[in-house]
Design brief:
With 312 residues, the chain is an alpha+beta fold. It contains eleven helices and eight strands. The chain has helices spanning 2-12, 15-32, 38-82, 84-92, 108-113, 130-141, 156-164, 182-203, 254-269, 275-286, 292-296, and strands spanning 95-99, 116-120, 145-151, 210-215, 221-226, 229-234, 246-249, 271-272.
Length: 312
């Protein structure tokens, strides 16, 4: 802001030239008026010439300063936009960046630089790319840890949320983000994740380096955690998470801790993926248990634990 004020002040100095020209015109008029002595005219002329000389020198310096200020203006604007005054509140809560969404985000650079990777979300969307498996294997080879948790397609909480979504109802399939047969897709993803789990365990020096789980709760946020940096975005109710803004937290603040606790809670409440669990999900998938028609026609019963009744 000081730089802009100085530029404005430099430009305003040009008004002095108008005044100087007015004085010069005044001297000319004095020379034409009878009764004004030659000495007076000469003295006034010398004063005007002096003003011209001083003004020229001053404006030469001012012009150089103006060019310098204009050259530095882009950097000054950048510093102002990224300075503490505008980002102070973001830094207070540990927020370092905001992305419009996570669509097509390449996570490989973050994985390749991390010693601990935790990914917790509803649908993984990574297992089709072998580069991610190789990057996670590299994390294990350098002594790091890998945790991956996704939604369990058998979980009542996920069935209930899916049934409530517009894309989970007949006749509501034409939206851009429609998730047709979404629970069946989860089941297919589980099968690929089980294959990942077995390959990761072969690379790990110790089984504790790897945890692959299934969330029985509906995760309202997706978490990508790389060491102390956490990317998080929200699954909006009655809509997909495609266009949710993604926030990056990388500071140890109370707010960052809250985000980390949410991620840790989902991991802690998840069930461990195993060959037995994967086989059960595969059987249900083959029997059509996760098809939209089956899911949408189902009923969910809330029962007391003491009765031993199942939810679905």
């Amino acid at each position: 802001m000081k730089l802009l004020a100085r530029i404005g002040s430099t430009v305003k100095l040009q008004l002095d030239w108008i005044i100087t020209v007015a004085l010069a015109v005044g001297v000319s008029i004095l020379g034409l008026v009878d009764g004004v002595s030659t000495k007076t005219v000469l003295t006034t002329t010398l004063l005007v010439l002096g003003v011209f000389a001083v003004g020229w020198m001053r404006d030469r310096v001012a012009a150089d300063q103006l060019r310098k200020d204009l050259k530095n203006l882009p950097q000054a604007v950048h510093n102002a936009l990224t300075g503490n005054q505008l980002l102070n509140q973001a830094r207070v809560i540990g927020l370092s960046a905001v992305y419009p969404n996570a669509i097509d985000k390449n996570w490989l650079p973050e994985i390749e630089a991390a010693r601990e990777v935790r990914i917790v979300k509803l649908k993984l969307n990574l297992t089709e790319n072998p580069d991610y498996l190789q990057a996670l294997c590299a994390v294990l080879r350098r002594g790091g840890k890998v945790t991956v948790v996704m939604g369990d397609p058998r979980a009542p909480a996920i069935w209930l949320r899916y049934k409530e979504e517009p894309h989970g109802l007949p006749g509501e399939r034409n939206t851009e983000t429609a998730w047709i047969n979404g629970l069946a897709e989860l089941a297919v993803e589980v099968a690929r994740l089980e294959s990942w789990r077995q390959k990761l365990l072969l690379v790990a020096a110790h089984p504790n380096q790897v945890y692959i789980g299934l969330s029985t709760a509906y995760p309202t946020h997706a978490y990508y955690c790389f060491d102390s940096t956490t990317y998080v975005y929200h699954y909006a109710y009655m809509a997909r998470g495609y266009y949710s803004p993604m926030f990056v937290f990388d500071e140890h603040t109370a707010q960052h801790s809250l985000v980390a606790q949410g991620c840790a809670a989902l991991i802690g409440d998840s069930i461990t993926l195993s060959s037995k669990v994967a086989a059960d999900i595969a059987r249900k998938l083959a029997a059509g248990a996760f098809a939209d028609a089956r899911v949408n026609s189902s009923t969910i019963t809330v029962t007391h634990k003491s009765s031993g009744a199942k939810g679905i």
